[in-house]
Amino acid sequence: MDDTPTDMRQVRLRAEALESLLVERGLLMESDIDQVIAQFEQRVGPVNGAKVVARAWTDAEFKLRLLADGTDAIREFRFSGGQVERLVVVENTHVEHNVVVCTLCSCYPWALLGLPPRWYKDPAYRSRIVREPRSVLAEMGLEVPASKRIRVWDSSAEIRYMVLPQRPDGAEALSEKEREALVTRDAMIGVA
User: Fold this and answer.
1) Could you read off the pLDDT of 81-139 as tens digits, one per residue?
2) Does residue 87 contact residue 70 with C-beta atoms inside 8 Å?
3) Up-side HSE of residue 146: CA atoms within 13 Å toward CB?
4) What's this model's pTM, rounded to 2 decimal places?
5) How many Å separate Cα 145 from the centre of its chain?
6) Nearest to 114 by CA among 183, 17, 18, 13
7) Cβ–Cβ under 8 Å, residues 85 and 113
């Protein structure tokens, strides 16, 4: 039994029908579709951000460079995709929790985080996270202790932000791939 909500099944069916028509009429090749999917699954997206975070968790020199100039620090990874021309990385610590929003639209570092989640573009998130971040984070399942300061960073067309999550205890003993697996897109936005 498919537990996908009805509206999502309808969207999926429409997308598949549109894809079939475009391929049938020779306007699009199936290999083109496969390349776009591979681009977002393997070369652009949270896997890239996870690589950056996993390295920062164990390489102190890289972490310093990342926090000083995120754009320059990630160049060596040669990620494809955009929206990281001016990247600022902010670090979660024992005393401060960071969260990212774009109050105007949905500016977002695609090359590192992939496609923005639907809620990131939602006007309710964009306005409420600025006014009542602790409440919004709690609604999203993240309880930030009252002793921690919360800073909200507003992305724009000129500057994109990414959160460097706190390294979990014991993560330094894990392999790079295991550390990468711990990092989620939502943690790099600051909502998890």
Assistant:
1) 677 789 999 999 999 999 999 999 888 888 899 888 889 999 999 999 999 999 999 99
2) yes
3) 0
4) 0.80
5) 23
6) 183
7) no
Residue 23 CA to residue 167 CA, distance in Å, equals 46
Q: How many C-beta neighbours within 10 Å does residue 188 have?
A: 24
Residues taking part in catalysis: 102, 105-107
Give the type of residue at 50: A
For residue 29, how many C-alpha atoms fall within 13 Å in the half-sphere facing its CB?
Answer: 3
Inter-residue contact 127 to 16 (CB < 8 Å):
no
**Nearest CA among 49, 36, 31 for reference residue 163:** 49
CB neighbour list of residue 158: distance below 8 Å, 6 or more residues apart: 86
* Euclidean distance between CA atoms 66 and 154, whole angstroms: 19
Report the amino acid identity of residue 85.
Answer: E
Longest dimension (CA), the chain: 60
| Cβ neighbours for 176, distance < 8 A, ≥ 6 positions apart | 54, 55, 58
**58 token code pair:** 């164990």
Check the CA dihedral 55-58-62-67 and report its sign.
positive
Q: Is the dihedral of CA 7, 111, 127, 131 positive or negative?
A: positive
Q: How would you class 183 by CB atoms within 10 Å of its CB: exposed for 0-12, middle for 13-18, buried for 19 or more? A: buried
